[in-house]
Amino acid sequence: MQVPQSTLSRALVRLEQDLGVELFARRGRTVALTPAGRTFLASVERALAEIERAAEEVRADADPATGKVAFGFLHTMGAETVPGLIHAFRADHPRVRFSLVQTYGEAMLEKLRAGELDLCLTSPVPDAPDLVARRVDEQKLRLVVPADHRLAGRRRVRLAEAADETFVTLEPGYGMRRITDALCREAGFTPRVAFEGEEAETLRGLVAAGLGVALLPPPAVPRPGVVELTVTAPRAVREIGVAWLAGHVDTQPVAAFKKFLLSRRGRLLHQ
Predict the structure, then answer these.
(1) Rg of the Cα atoms in the chain
(2) pTM to 2 decimals?
(3) What is the mean pLDDT of residues 45-55?
(4) For 110-146, what is each residue's pLDDT tens digit?
(5) Does the N terminus or the C terminus of the chain have fewer Cβ atoms within 10 A?
(6) Phi, psi values for residue 217, rounded to 5°
(7) Pair type for strands 131-140 and 237-245
(8) Distances (CA, A) of 57 to 53, 60, 101, 112, 149
(9) Which has the closest alpha carbon to 158: 235, 102, 226, 80?
(10) Residues forming beta bridges with residue 166, ordered by sequence position
(11) What DSSP line would sit under 141-196, residue for residue?
């Protein structure tokens, strides 16, 4: 062990004093474990094995070729956008692994701050001193109406024309809810909200059932029973940004994926 015998002896004595238990039976120049020592040794060996396992895991996660990226994104990006991004990224990094978290914006920012995510795609683009965020794209929003709605025969509409409609929206705290409320205010009205949900496709189902209208990003697959109208005024878009924790030191896989996302500015999304 390349430790002087006297130093080791003092360390053993200190350990016993800290525990208040005799771990070693000393017989002349020999030392043997007591029953308490054998119990302690078994637990310590398990603890050391767990520490080594954890060390191997974090080394594996940081490996340039096979490491892991913890990546969060909005529900509306899960069907096409994120699978396409990861597919394109893995063309040059085929063995990098991903831990994917699909949730709403505020929850992703909390996970960034807690160290549970390395990066996230979110909207609106956050502005906070402890985060770094870069705008990478924008997504047009549509006014979604039932197929038999009075506006369904139109292709374009001013949002003010829906001022008297009942709206279905995402719950407060969701980025799309804040954007919806802001656009309606800009159009000169406060939306009358009848239903609040957690997922855009559920809202489309409510619209198809004739329960209201909604402002939503384009669907991955067209939904029967609804018509999606271009909003001409105000300009109805949501900005999409990449965010990460300020001062966080990236592993090589995270740095590579961050660079990849930023390189796709303006062409990140399926419109």
Answers:
(1) 28
(2) 0.78
(3) 82
(4) 999 999 999 999 999 999 999 999 999 999 999 999 9
(5) N
(6) -70, 165
(7) antiparallel
(8) 6, 5, 20, 20, 56
(9) 235
(10) 192
(11) -EEEEETTSTTTT-SEEEGGGGTTSEEEEEPTTSHHHHHHHHHHHHTT---EEEEE
Tokens (6 digits) for 8:
């080791």
Could you report how far apart the first and last alpha carbons of the chain are, in Å? 64
Among the listed residues 118, 78, 77, the one whose alpha carbon sits nearest the alpha carbon of residue 98:
118
CB 158 within 8 A of CB 187: yes
- Cβ–Cβ under 8 Å, residues 80 and 270: yes
The encoded tokens of residue 74 equal 């909005």
Q: What is the pLDDT of residue 60?
A: 65
Q: Which of 267, 231, 234, 232 is nearest to 138 (CA)?
A: 267
Q: Are strands 214-216 and 30-33 parallel, antiparallel or unpaired?
A: unpaired
| Among the listed residues 4, 24, 5, 3, the one whose alpha carbon sits nearest the alpha carbon of residue 13 | 24
- CA separation for the pair 206, 100 (Å, rounded): 28
Q: Greater confidence, 61 or 126?
A: 126
Task: State the Cα angle at 192 between 190 and 198, rounded to 5°.
Answer: 105
Instruction: Work out the burial of residue 245: count CB atoms within 10 Å of its CB; fewer than 13 is exposed, 13-18 middle, 19 or more buried.
Output: middle
The string of pLDDT tens digits covering residues 197-246 is 989 999 999 999 999 999 999 998 899 999 999 999 999 999 999 999 99
Instruction: Give the residue ranges of DSSP H helices in the chain.
Output: 5-19, 35-62, 81-89, 105-113, 175-186, 200-208, 252-263
Residue 251: burial class (beta carbons within 10 Å; 0-12, 13-18, 19+): middle
